[in-house]
């Protein structure tokens, strides 16, 4: 191998130093692991908004623009999670660190406490930290994730087919087009709600708690929102031949007023709660539906789909218990 070729390989493996000196030369191939001594110098992390994964300002590897890193010795004492969040938010220019949430890894369902201390195994290359920041995204990611794993989906309203913003596959016979998103870009907690938020962001929909996902066109009921999404191959929607069916709901734009002191909000899969009349906002799409409110009911009731904004709850509420505010 010539000296010129060796020099070219060396140059291609470097990542330029940033103004904050948080990056240094490394391999451009994200599959090549740094040696243990070098790796322990850094905390590795991935960056998300509430809707989608985004690229950090200082990627660790050219071949993996979604993996960031920061020197461990750049975190101010006493090196708590709070100091770590402050450092990462400063590097990423995301504003207040108090508006951010830090997870130990993709498999953790609870965020870390600000008072927790850093330890040697935190933020490894194999299990990077996941930082969720409160920023408004106007640009969609264009860089390719090094090992994409796609979720395929078709789009509907309750009465029509929707053409995706970026169809991956279309059919000449008028069948619904298929779109896809990279499962690596689905934000924490990597569950059903996160999948719906990610699809809504890509399709430029307004957020709505009543968008639903079905495993197939013949499914009798939507996927249970208590199910945790499997972040690996073989999860629902991972096959092009069996795309998810995403049904877009009308926006929750009409406000309801409670007609008595207390009313019942019937929650999906988890019973019901009482809501007290304190002029707190409850929203609906304005559509009257006939639904069974519990497994023991024999007759359907007239209900609205309702969103109780104060507590972030969604459920069904009887039409006789409320009235719409125009």
Walk me through the structure:
11% of the residues lie in helices and 26% in strands. It has three domains: 3-132, Roll (Ubiquitin-like (UB roll)); 148-249, Ubiquitin-like (UB roll), CATH 3.10.20; 254-325, SH3 type barrels (Roll). With 326 residues, the chain is of the alpha+beta class. The model is unreliable at 1-32 (pLDDT under 50). A hairpin with a 4-residue loop joins strand 7 (150-156) and strand 8 (161-162).
For this entry, give a set of tags:
326 residues; alpha+beta; Ubiquitin-like (UB roll); SH3 type barrels; 3 domains; six-stranded mixed beta sheet; six-stranded antiparallel beta sheet; 4 helices; globular; disordered N terminus
Percent in helix:
10-25%
The total domain count is 3
Please give the largest β-sheet: 6 strands, mixed
**Separation, N- and C-terminal Cα atoms:** 77 Å
Radius of gyration, taken over Cα atoms and rounded to an integer in Å: 24 Å
Low-confidence stretches: 1-32
Q: Write down the overall geometry.
A: globular
